[in-house]
Task: structure prediction
Amino acid sequence: MSFETGLLMRPIETPRLILVAPQAHHLEAYVAYCASARARFVGGPFDAAKAFDKLCSMAGHWTLRGFGRYVITLKESGQAIGHVGALQIDDAELPEMTWTLWPDDAEGRGYAFEAATAYLAQAKRAVGVDEMLIRIAAGNARSSKLAERLGASVDTTIKAAAWMGDGLTYRITLPQVSDPDGAD
Result:
């Protein structure tokens, strides 16, 4: 796998959001999310110690893989409202595209689509793959709908992740990106 380390670690701006690397000041909002029923689709709820461990893993993924997940923040206020980006636990599998909105009031406003679209626009060059997986827990209809809106389709040939049980696995082809130096 070839990727440009740090290419994606720079903040990504959209009209309403700024995607930033996970930082200590995001912990309070992340702990609140992990303790809530919203975390049920990712194996939670989790206590504060597990939430801390998970945020540290999110930050450390950048060091180990050269790419990872961003915290989604509102451009106007800086409020952390979720995370988005690639996760790759197993080298033998394609990276997984992930997203989660932390507070209930962030749902239904298009933030997950806006963040995921911005991330995917740069992911091919930064992550170094042509495709990614998207794993969605059974019953998470909103995320399934978003995966399909992003252009992903269910792939029944890929075994579900052990931690997910009866979830769905989608495959998404990453968009072509232009060379920032104009060499394309």
